[in-house]
């Protein structure tokens, strides 16, 4: 099997053995355009604050470059591959024509014609209006999303397009997740997956939000769901099927076979989200197994046999992770991004020189200094809202806060406090789930931040529980390959495939009781800050002042 993971800055492909999930070869392709945040490629059109776009050409290039390279690294004849699966960051969504052509290829000078990356947060005012109206009307779907939908999601981003560029909105015959768009390119058949439709597209038992609700937001928004072209699972609308996870989306076209070097006609699995497929890669598809995929951001995914309303969660969707169970999602909008921001922008030259002299990068050097400290020695506590707050406040106009700095504060002090802040944010999420009656039986860590053993130990101490770890460096790509194995008929369902091909080490990190006690005191201060700044009065005002000055 081949699994392809389309991330924030790059795409990676892995070749996986069907019988046991062994990863035989992999390759990474860095996006040429990266994250488009300041100006559009070619035209130089400037973007506003909190914009984040991507180029669909980068995604096609991953298929052209990474997949053949992974096959070459594996030494596996292409003819032995029986299926391919993919996953994407979400909500990464784009406007397209009815034949799937991205609008940015037709009007590249218009910012709203480009795909909006998951961390495009400029639609926060539109999300606020959606949430306010839904609360006033008592919309039945709102509690399924913890009481608020995010500015990262399909409806808020689409409303922004309508109100800021109505011509592009009108030209968009499709408003489609990149997770589904890439499957369209591979198979020639348009489909929509239940995962993104449920979590990012507000599709619940009774369908989408009503036309009446949408018209009250803006009369021109009333027909928006026609651009989504989906109904319930298995139902066709405008020839488009909403498909279950692990299902067969179609077969590889001749054109896509030429891109990838794979055989024409092999199975292509239904599209999925990077975090959600990782549950299968960690063989964590049973009730109560929370998987935290920790990278630039963190997504918390957990199957459950219980339906509850968890304040501030990203959503609960029937069959959203594995068929037959409720799937819960929560998250933190910035984690690795916080550490990268600090290391890139706030580390003195002397630290960089010292790191280089010891053969370390900035993160390794700061970690080596920070881990020597006792808990609380730096005298700091921080809020992990540098990319806004996804859970449990669902407010991307919040911003980071660091309290306790003095003239004696060193870079390693701040770095450690930032690591701890993200662990405190994760504890807030876990406690919120458990207070709502959804127990977290096992906490499983996946993602690139597993490389920092000190960071993961901090999480174990802060959470006061053992942490299991995934047995793969390529969790999403492996998870996509597992879904492809189901789509190709090698396994009867995701649970069987995950048991055979997934891997994790249980209780790999154990909490230290003394450190855990010390962290309880710091966490209490974090909660105080969280409640004080969470109303947004000060942080929203500061952001508004910044935006006015920038404009």
TrEMBL record:
SUPFAM superfamilies with a match to the protein in the record: Actin-like ATPase domain (SSF53067)
Alphabetical keyword list: Arabinose catabolism, ATP-binding, Carbohydrate metabolism, Kinase, Nucleotide-binding, Transferase
Superkingdom of this protein's organism: Bacteria
CDD domains listed in its UniProt record: ASKHA_NBD_FGGY_L-RBK (cd07781)
Positions of transmembrane segments: none
Chemical reaction(s) catalysed: L-ribulose + ATP = L-ribulose 5-phosphate + ADP + H(+)
This protein's pathway: Carbohydrate degradation; L-arabinose degradation via L-ribulose; D-xylulose 5-phosphate from L-arabinose (bacterial route): step 2/3
Stored InterPro entries: ATPase_NBD, Carb_kinase_FGGY, FGGY_C, Ribulokinase
MF annotations from Gene Ontology: ribulokinase activity
EC number of the protein: 2.7.1.16
PANTHER family the record matches: FGGY CARBOHYDRATE KINASE DOMAIN-CONTAINING PROTEIN, RIBULOKINASE
Family, as annotated: Belongs to the ribulokinase family.
Official protein name in the record: Ribulokinase
Name of the coding gene: araB
């Amino acid at each position: 099997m081949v699994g392809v993971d389309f991330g924030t800055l790059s795409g990676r492909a892995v070749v996986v053995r069907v019988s046991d999930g062994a990863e035989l070869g992999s390759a990474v392709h860095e996006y040429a355009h990266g994250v488009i945040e300041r100006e559009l490629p070619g035209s130089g059109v400037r973007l506003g604050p909190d914009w984040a776009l991507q180029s669909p050409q980068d995604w096609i290039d991953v298929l052209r470059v990474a997949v053949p390279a992974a096959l070459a690294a594996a030494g596996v004849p292409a003819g032995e591959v029986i299926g391919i699966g993919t996953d994407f960051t979400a909500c990464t969504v784009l406007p397209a024509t009815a034949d799937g052509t991205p609008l940015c290829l037709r009007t590249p000078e218009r910012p709203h014609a480009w795909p909006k990356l998951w961390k495009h947060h400029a639609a926060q005012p539109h999300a606020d209006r959606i949430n306010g109206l839904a609360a006033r009307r008592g919309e039945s779907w709102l509690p399924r999303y913890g009481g608020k939908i995010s500015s990262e999601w399909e409806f808020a981003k689409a409303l922004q397009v309508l109100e800021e560029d109505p011509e592009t909105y009108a030209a968009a015959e499709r408003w489609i997740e990149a997770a589904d768009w890439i499957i369209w390119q591979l198979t020639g058949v348009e489909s929509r997956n239940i995962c993104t439709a449920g979590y990012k597209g507000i599709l619940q038992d009774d369908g989408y939000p009503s036309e009446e609700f949408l018209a009250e937001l803006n009369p021109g928004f009333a027909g928006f769901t026609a651009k989504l072209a989906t109904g319930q699972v298995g139902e066709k609308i405008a020839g488009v099927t909403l498909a279950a996870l692990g299902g067969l989306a179609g077969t590889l076209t001749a054109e896509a076979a030429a891109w990838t070097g794979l055989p024409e006609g092999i199975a292509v699995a239904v599209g999925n989200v990077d975090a959600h497929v990782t549950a299968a890669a960690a063989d964590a598809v049973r009730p109560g197994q929370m998987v935290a995929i920790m990278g630039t951001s963190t997504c918390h995914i957990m199957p459950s046999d219980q339906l509850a309303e968890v304040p501030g969660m990203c959503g609960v969707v029937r069959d959203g992770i594995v068929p037959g169970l409720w799937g819960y999602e929560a998250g933190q909008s910035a984690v690795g991004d916080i550490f990268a921001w600090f290391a890139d922008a706030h580390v003195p030259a002397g630290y960089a020189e010292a790191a280089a002299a010891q053969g370390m990068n900035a993160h390794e050097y700061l970690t080596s200094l920070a881990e020597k400290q006792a808990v609380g020695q730096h005298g700091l506590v921080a809020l992990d809202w540098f990319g806004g707050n996804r859970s449990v406040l669902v407010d991307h106009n919040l911003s980071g806060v660091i309290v306790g700095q003095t003239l004696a504060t060193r870079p390693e002090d701040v770095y450690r406090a930032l690591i701890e802040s993200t662990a405190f944010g994760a504890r807030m999420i876990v406690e919120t789930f458990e207070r709502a009656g959804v127990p977290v039986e096992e906490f499983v860590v996946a993602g690139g931040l597993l490389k920092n053993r000190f960071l993961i130990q901090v999480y174990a101490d802060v959470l006061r529980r053992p942490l299991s770890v995934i047995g793969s460096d390529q969790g999403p790509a492996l998870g996509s390959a597992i879904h492809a194995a189901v789509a190709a008929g090698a396994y009867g369902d995701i649970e069987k495939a995950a048991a055979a091909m997934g891997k994790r080490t249980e209780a790999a990190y154990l909490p230290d009781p003394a450190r855990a006690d010390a962290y309880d005191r710091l966490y209490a201060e974090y909660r105080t800050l969280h409640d004080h700044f969470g109303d947004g009065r000060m942080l929203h005002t500061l952001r508004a002042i910044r935006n006015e000055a920038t404009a």
